[in-house]
Amino acid sequence: MFWFGPIDAPLLITSLISGFTAVSLTLQVRRRSKLIRAGLYVGLAIWLLSLTFGLIGPINWFYPTANDWGMLGWQSALAIGNGVLTATLVGGALPMLENLFRITTDISWLEASDLNHPLLRRMTIEAPGTYHHSLVVANLAEAAAEAVDANATLCRVCSYFHDVGKLVKPEYFTENMSFERNPHDELAPTMSALIIIAHVKEGVDLALKHRLNQRIIDIIQEHHGTSVVRYFYQRAVQQHEDARAGGKIMKLREDDIPEVHEESFRYSGPKPQTKESAIVSLADTIESASRSLEKPTPQKIEALVNELIDERISDRQLDECDLTLGELKVIADRFRFTLLSMLHTRI
To answer: Exposed e or buried b for every residue in 282-296, given b needs 16+ CB within 10 A?
Structure first.
């Protein structure tokens, strides 16, 4: 049995209170300077508690001239410097600590939001439409995340990178197409769907190659869940119906006309696993759909947002994340407000 001697209650209380102070002041640190400021406040807390419990001194309050002010000043400086020095060391060791414990702080997320990242620079040149789309998704996702106490900075950064896979074949995505030519006009719907679906895997490959954060990779994988590439699925169904009608005229057997399977037009998933992933997924869907609105009005935007969120719920795309219906309502309200702010010049 180990015995460490009697507990020093004043020292224990000082340590606990200063520790809780440090935690409360660093819950949302986005700048290293704020970390140092938090260290200063913790140092002041240690100093005040040390004075209260007599850990500094002794101090003769009735005969100030009897005090050793040099020693008291040195002890006070040590108490305050303790907090500042600890914060400085933590700030310097933060990258190593994050790597060791596999966590990412808001400071690192902010560093990752640098738009000069090679992938984002490529996107501005090779897929400018996708780049603009990603910026708008980032604004939508960040605003929604703040409203439900999710990690807004993470949502912003992941939104920047969620569609990097489109860099492989940018011309096959609506936002990057020229007015003269739509390459999907020359392809079967199944082939078009394969190209669209492949951008998720290609995005993961690019993210791994550039050593992006694992949370970014997860959201790239999850942002479409197992949803259907609706446009090409409906186009395939229509072509199938036309083929059946033509086959009857030509007296072909129905077995000779291949069936259209919805599963062939679904993304491979997985579905969003976290609040942040679900928020980026919804923001991506809503931003894409909002571009097709003609003469957008508040009523049209509200109807669009509600319809798309209800569609995701009914398709069970949000079953594996921890968003509640109440939070989805808040997110929908935030999406509407943000879209109205962005589209106000068109309303």
So the answer is: bbbbbbbebeebeeb
> What residues form DSSP beta bridges with 228?
266
DSSP secondary structure letter of residue 229:
-
Q: How confident is the model at residue 10 (pLDDT cuts 50, 70, 90)?
A: confident
Topology (CATH level 3) of domain 108-229+266-346: Hypothetical protein af1432 (1.10.3210)
pLDDT, tens digit, for every residue of 276-299? 999 999 999 999 999 888 888 899
**Cα torsion 125, 126, 128, 130: sign:** negative
Cα–Cα–Cα angle for 234, 235, 239, rounded to 5 degrees: 115
Cβ neighbour number for residue 100 with a 10 Å cutoff: 9
* First-to-last C-alpha distance (Å) of the chain: 76
Residues 160 and 220: their CA atoms lie apart, in Å, by 10
**Under 8 Å CB-to-CB from 48, ≥6 apart: which residues?**
none
Smallest CA-to-CA distance from 15 within 54, 52, 42 is with 42
pTM of the model: 0.81
Residue 49 to residue 41: CA distance in whole angstroms = 12
Where b means 16+ CB within 10 Å and e means fewer, 234-258 reads ebbeeeeeebeeeeeeeeeeeeeee
Residue 308 has pLDDT above 50, yes or no: yes
Contact 213, 152 (CB under 8 A): no
Tokens standing for residue 36? 């140092």
Cα(344)–Cα(98) distance, rounded to whole angstroms?
41
Start-end ranges of CATH 1.10.3210 in the chain?
A: 108-229+266-346
If you count them, how many residues does the chain have? Answer: 347
DSSP symbols for 21-90: HHHHHTTT--SHHHHHHHHHHHHHHHHHHHHHTT-S----SS-GGGS-HHHHHHHHHHHHHHHHHHHHHH
